[in-house]
Every structure is written in structure tokens, then in C-alpha cells.
Design brief:
transport; Alpha-Beta Plaits; about 25% strand; alpha/beta; 4-stranded antiparallel β-sheet; about 350 residues; single chain; ABC_transporter-like_CS; Rossmann fold
Length: about 350
Amino acid sequence: MLAVVVDQVSKAYRRGARALDSVSLEVEEGEVVAVLGPNGAGKTTLARIIATLLAPTGGRVFLMGRDVARSQADVRRILGYVPQGATAPPESTGEEYLAMVATLHGVPASERRARIRELLRWLELAPAGSHLARTYSGGMRRRLDLAAALLHRPPVLIFDEPTTGLDPSSRRHIWNHIKELVRQNGTTLLLTTHYLEEADALADRLVILDRGKVAVSGRPEALKAALGGDRVRLAVPSAQLPAVREALAAGWFDDIPAPTIRGLPDGTTQLEWTLPAGARAAARLTEALHGAAVSVLGIFVYPPSLDDVFQAHTGRTLQEAQEQAIASGMAPEEGRGKAGRPPQRAA
């Protein structure tokens, strides 16, 4: 059964700004799907629409067969939603906050204490349960948010930017809990992220979202394999680039396409190819360039990455897309409410 179906969903704001443009995706039961893209791509808008917190301009969303627009109460009973910002009141203890959320979700009073203790223990927060939320570290706050989303034992979880702002150790901690949740409970998970390694580590399937549209989707390994070979990167002195061009044009490399060429501020130039049997091709290139008296400063061969996939389908790296988002003022995610406040939790 399909747990989540997003069918041609669009979202337009005033003055013609479009956060989403005919986005479609499907998530099977028990599957982990990552929506990857830079800030401003529409990820949080999509998450909030699925979570019933935002109405789309067009299209429909179904959660476990229920129309999200027409069955909001039913959807919220079977959905756990973890928004980006910390949601616990800073002057409440972790236990007090979870008790409040359990009440909002209708968890039976006879089960609340046991469920809270179970989640605090599982998420390694039991010693801090009686402490004020304002004393929690960033990683602890994210785990507390996850506990709140799981109190009513939903079969479907949406996790918006699970580890933004966390240090690498806390990030991996969250990843381990997510993997265990899916393995033990078969939870269906849709997560949004702008971290390549997060998508690679967690996702069964990937949806790349860019400028409000789906650029490509598929299993991470299949998307990488579709690029057609290894990445080969060659560094030479910029002053010797004419000699490199002459050597490449001499007919020795008719089977090798033209490289992408990028000059760097340090006086070096990088040439980059995607080539089958990258190591053998690199050896041929190095030998020929040495024969043409070109000083090869470095040559690197590595398998395709998700950033290569992103670049192949959007025309820019994810880092470049992030920088463009910052320059355009879209770096704060588009899902915030009025006056920059984080969105409220669905209940």
C-alpha cells in the first residue's frame, strides 16, 4: 500500500511566488524517502502541506488512503510530524512537555506515563526528563521533538530537516535512532534535508527538489550509476592550460568527452570528466600530459556522489544552490509562520 501520495501539488503565495510547482511523489509503507534540496527549494512547504498545516494551491495529498484536505483529524491520528524548530516551551521540563502533547493526541491517561518513560529511555533522555527544556543541547531537543511525534504511535512520520545545526556526533546519534525506529516498527518515513550524507545514509529512495520542482527521483545507488562512470579530476597550472588543450585536441582521446574546466584563485585549473573505468582513463591522461611536458599537480578518481547527481539534474552543485539561496534571501526555510515564528505542531 502507498502510505503517502503527493499528486501534482502546487503552492503559490502572494505576488506570484511559487514554492511548489506540480510536485508528485509516492512513499510506500515502511519506506524511507528523503526529499533533498537547498533551502528555498520547497521542502518545508511540502512537509507542512502533508502534515495538514498548510493548504496547497493545487493538487491533492493522500495519507494511508485518506485525502489530507478532507480528513485532517484522521490524518493527524496516523501521522507524526517533527518540524524544524524546537517546539518544547523552554520553561517546561521534558516530561511536562511530553505529557501535554500526549493529552493533545488523545493518548489514554492510563498509558501516558508509561509511553513517556519508554520514549525517554529509548532516546536516551531519561536522566534529563525532569530538567527544563532550555537546558537541553541541540541534539537533545531534536530527540525530544522526535519523542513528542511518536507518543501516539503513528505509522507515518515526517521529519523536517532532522539534524540542521547539529554537530556531527549528534547528527549520527539522530540517524541511529531513525534507523532503529524504521527497523523495529516498520515506520514509514518522509524526511527533508539539505545534507547529502544524510540522504545517502538514511534513504531507500531520493527525491531531488529544486526551485519548487522535482528534478529527479530514484534509489541513490541507481541515480549515481546512471551518471555513467567515475569522476576524474585533474589539476594543472593555469599557465599550462593551452598545452593541455593542445594535447587533448591531438586525437589521442577521441573516446573521451571534453572536460569541465574551472580556474581556481590559487593559479591552478581543474579539469573534470565522468568516465567509465575512471582509473584506467586517468592513467592514460596522466601519461599523455607528462609526454606533452604538462606538470600534473594532482589527479583524483572517485565514484559518483549524490552531489554529482544533483549537479547533473540541476546544473549546479548543492553548495552552489545553497549559496544562491543565501544571496537571494531564501536561506531561512520557506516554512516559517508569521513574524518568523516556527510552525506549530499538528495535534
